[in-house]
Amino acid sequence: MIYIKSRTPHSNHLCQYKITTMAKHITTSIEIKSDVQTVWKILTDFKAYPKWNPFIKSIEGEVAEGQMVTANIAGMTFKPKVLIFRENSELKWLGHLFFKGLFDGEHRFSLTEKEGGTVYFEQTEKFTGILVPLFARSLDTDTTKGFNDMNKALKKRAEDKIMESQIV
What is the mean pLDDT of residues 75-97? Predict the structure, then answer.
């Protein structure tokens, strides 16, 4: 919740307004026929993103817990703070549009190795802030599509790498 204090137009009294922020969650996942190390290596090879990633065009900076990075996602540039960087397991960051509380996104990539030589890849984001209702339709369509497109491209790249290694 965000509290705003202002003076009323007809008096000098302070009024307090409470604005309830909205939240929206997106969760997408895909199963990849690969090992977790290969998927993680592709996911964290940020310099190669322009070659294969249709959604996140670039990530620049030191990707380590507590560090700020620059991410170009769907044509917009954000400077999120890395919250978790756990090798072969999880990457999570928190970004804000202009300032905290307006439109915030906590983006998470999670990898879980499964039996039979597969990896369960999950990409989620929790959006909060007073502008979430304004972007809700776009989040449901464009952002969800972007997540799924990236998931499919990651799967293809990882499975192609595994196939190449088996041929050699």
Answer: 95
Indicate which CATH number applies to the domain containing 90. Answer: 3.30.530.20
Q: List, in sequence order, every residue forming a beta bridge with 94; answer none if it has no partner.
A: 81, 106
Mean pLDDT for 41-60 is 97
Are residues 104 and 128 in contact, defined by beta-carbon separation less than 8 angstroms? Answer: yes
Tell me the CA distances in angstroms from 47 to 19, 42, 44, 58, 64, one per residue in order: 41, 10, 9, 7, 16
**Angstrom distance (rounded) from CA 132 to CA 108:** 18
Q: Is residue 137 part of a domain?
A: yes
pTM for the full model?
A: 0.84
Among 123, 71, 75, smallest CA distance to 95 is for 71
Structural domain boundaries, residue 48:
22-167
